[in-house]
């Protein structure tokens, strides 16, 4: 008779901290009936024996704070080692000793649901009179030179609990409506400015042209992060939008680059429902009735639309990253009521990235999932990018120490004190780039000085700063004192102007710093004619909102991110 296998389950979290109080269920199969063992509660390590002829072991771990983990081990008769199906976890066979590295995660896919579009439209249209009444009240207030008081939406189903997807469940509802192939997509190249500032729209920029089909380039995931265990959660669960280039789903991927995009504020109750900590409904799945692009009334999950719009239509982040041929994951935390604390502290932001590495799906041919898998990928290089009101969060991230008290160790971050990794120190090691796109003027000089100090602390760091007149304008070479002035001293500007249309940049597109400043008119495009149709469109108004369409791609093209293709 074959010798028994001795199985040891070692339980920790993504930061390497041991985890206790998991509930373990085991199923054993040796070719006959499946043997189900009673559920038990175990500590960080648990050892048990199974008969030598066992061919399948399934260990299911449940925890009140972590996502359920299933470890499925298989072997054929005569095999001396075990294979397993969960690609991001580890199993080691040493003789008859088997160790299961059961790392519990705090990320899980968002719950998905489908509602027929006709029904959603009918329900939204029924609320049109309420929306029109709110619009009349706001118009009357503005006529009296007073601020509007009524939200630009009407609750439809604030307690809805799933992300709405297409009937075949292959795409988020909004993603399916706006994702499209764009031929001639313009990317601002490293030189940034052309020699023809008098030209309309994109003619003022040094660009390359690309055909981008986002469905061919990558995959959009919507996940929940935080208190994702079974039972009633006492802490928050955040919705996170994640864009992953297809190449990074490959099993051989050993390290991942990340671009963390911090969206502007969400604490305007007239534009977004508000949700206090710990962020229960209407965050993040609540359904609203609001005006659509054709000014009709539509049903929307406004929180979930944030990452989809930023990636695929409003700012075209996914298109620009693909055009720049950079292999990086774009992470967009969907933050309710502008409570960004979790994502502007080094330790807790590093924990999120570790969790995503642990969770990241890998693509295997059907039937080939059971193998001896490579380790889960690690974090290689991190960019944190802010736009508008989120640029000051980059300043906070440079200075922050311990995260907000709501986000305690070891569930949200860890240090050697918790017998884990040093999340804060590791984040500072991998955080290599800041992209600041048209940050608000308040406190901007303090941010620039802090960024100048930060970029010189490691030789491979980079900063990219872009400003328009909308946020106060900026002469990056005009400072006389401070860390920023010392960094840029002696730099030669590149300036293009035609009348009141001007732009300038200074720095090195392949170096540690580059800063650009634009007149509002330089960023704007024509209202009609062939140039008006060039995508991403530069519209005749709204210079501030157009800045990411130009600057994100330029930052990507001059970044140190891994190159694809």
Describe the protein's architecture and organization.
The protein is 21% helix and 31% strand. It has 13 helices and 27 strands. The strands form 6 sheets. It has an 11-stranded mixed β-sheet with strand order 10-16-17-21-18-22-23-24-27-26-25, with helices on both faces. It has a 5-stranded antiparallel β-sheet with strand order 3-2-5-6-7, with no helix packed on it. A hairpin with an 8-residue loop joins β6 and β7 (83-84). The radius of gyration is 26 Å and the shape is globular. The mean pLDDT is 96.
Taking pLDDT < 50 over at least 5 consecutive residues as the criterion, the unreliable ranges are none
- Sum up the overall morphology in one term: globular
Query: What is the structural class?
Result: alpha/beta
Strand content: 25-35%
User: Order of strands side by side in the largest beta sheet?
Assistant: 10-16-17-21-18-22-23-24-27-26-25
Intertermini distance: 53 Å
- Beta strands, count: 27
Number of helical segments? 13
Residues in helices, as a percent range: 10-25%
- Integer average pLDDT: 96
Q: Can you summarize the main beta sheet?
A: 11 strands, mixed
Round the Cα radius of gyration to an integer and report it.
26 Å
Helix and strand arrangement:
Layout: E1 5-13, E2 22-29, E3 35-42, E4 45-50, E5 56-62, E6 69-74, E7 83-84, E8 90-94, E9 97-104, E10 107-109, E11 112-113, H1 117-125, H2 128-143, E12 153-157, E13 163-164, H3 173-178, E14 182-193, E15 205-212, H4 214-217, E16 218-226, E17 237-245, E18 255-262, E19 287-291, E20 297-300, H5 302-312, H6 317-323, E21 329-334, H7 346-359, E22 378-387, H8 391-399, H9 423-430, E23 431-437, H10 444-455, E24 462-468, H11 483-488, E25 494-498, E26 501-507, E27 513-518, H12 520-523, H13 543-557
Parallel strand pairs: 1-9, 11-13, 18-21, 18-22, 22-23, 23-24, 24-27
Antiparallel strand pairs: 1-4, 2-3, 2-5, 5-6, 6-7, 8-9, 10-16, 12-19, 14-15, 16-17, 17-21, 19-20, 25-26, 26-27
Helix pairs in contact: 6-13, 7-9, 8-10
């Amino acid at each position: 008779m074959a010798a028994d296998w001795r199985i040891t389950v070692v339980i920790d979290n993504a930061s390497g901290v041991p985890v206790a109080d998991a509930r373990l269920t085991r199923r054993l199969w040796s070719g006959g009936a499946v043997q189900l063992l009673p559920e038990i509660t175990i500590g960080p390590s648990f050892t048990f024996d199974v008969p030598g002829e066992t061919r399948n072991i399934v260990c299911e771990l449940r925890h009140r704070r972590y996502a359920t983990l299933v470890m499925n081990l298989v072997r054929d008769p005569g095999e001396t080692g075990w294979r397993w199906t969960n690609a991001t976890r580890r199993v080691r066979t040493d003789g008859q000793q088997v160790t299961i590295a059961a790392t519990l995660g705090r990320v899980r896919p968002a719950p998905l649901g489908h509602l027929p579009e006709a029904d959603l439209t009918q329900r939204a249209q029924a609320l049109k009179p309420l929306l029109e009444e709110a619009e009349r009240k706001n118009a009357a207030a503005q006529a009296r030179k007073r601020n509007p008081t009524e939200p630009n939406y009407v609750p439809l189903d604030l307690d809805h609990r799933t992300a709405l997807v297409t009937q075949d469940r292959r795409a988020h509802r909004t993603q399916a409506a706006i994702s499209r192939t764009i031929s001639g997509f313009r990317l601002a190249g490293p030189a940034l400015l052309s020699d023809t500032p008098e030209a309309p729209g994109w003619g003022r920029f040094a660009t390359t042209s690309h055909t981008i089909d986002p469905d061919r380039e990558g995959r959009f995931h919507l996940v929940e992060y935080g208190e994702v265990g079974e039972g009633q959660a006492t802490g928050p669960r955040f919705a996170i939008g994640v864009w992953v280039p297809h190449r990074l789903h490959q099993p051989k991927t050993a390290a991942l680059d990340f671009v963390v995009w911090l969206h502007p504020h969400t604490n305007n109750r007239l534009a977004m429902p508000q949700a206090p900590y710990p962020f229960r409904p209407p965050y993040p799945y609540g359904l609203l009735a609001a005006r659509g692009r054709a000014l009709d009334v539509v049903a929307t999950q406004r929180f979930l639309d944030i990452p989809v719009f930023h990636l695929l239509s409003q700012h075209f982040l996914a298109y620009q990253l693909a055009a720049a041929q950079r292999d990086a994951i774009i992470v967009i935390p969907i933050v309710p009521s502008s409570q960004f604390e979790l994502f502007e502290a080094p330790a807790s932001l590093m924990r999120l990235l570790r969790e995503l590495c642990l969770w990241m799906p890998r693509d295997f041919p059907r039937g080939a999932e059971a193998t001896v898998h490579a380790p889960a990928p690690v974090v290689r290089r991190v960019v944190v990018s802010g736009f508008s009101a989120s640029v000051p969060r980059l300043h906070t991230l440079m200075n922050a120490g311990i995260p907000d008290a709501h986000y305690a160790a070891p569930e949200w971050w860890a240090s050697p004190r918790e017998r884990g990794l040093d999340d804060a120190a590791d984040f500072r090691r991998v955080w290599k780039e800041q992209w600041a796109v048209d940050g608000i003027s308040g406190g901007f000089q303090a941010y620039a000085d802090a960024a100048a100090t930060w970029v010189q602390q490691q030789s491979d760091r980079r900063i990219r700063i872009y400003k328009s007149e909308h946020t106060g304008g900026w002469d990056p070479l005009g400072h006389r004192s401070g860390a920023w002035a010392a960094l840029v001293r002696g730099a030669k500007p590149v300036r293009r102007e035609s009348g009141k249309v001007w732009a300038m940049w200074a720095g090195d597109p392949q170096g540690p710093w580059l800063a650009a400043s634009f007149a509002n008119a330089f960023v704007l495009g024509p209202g009609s004619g062939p140039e008006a149709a060039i995508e991403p469109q530069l519209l005749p108004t709204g210079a501030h909102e157009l800045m990411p369409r130009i600057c994100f791609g330029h930052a990507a093209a001059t970044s140190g991110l891994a190159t694809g293709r």
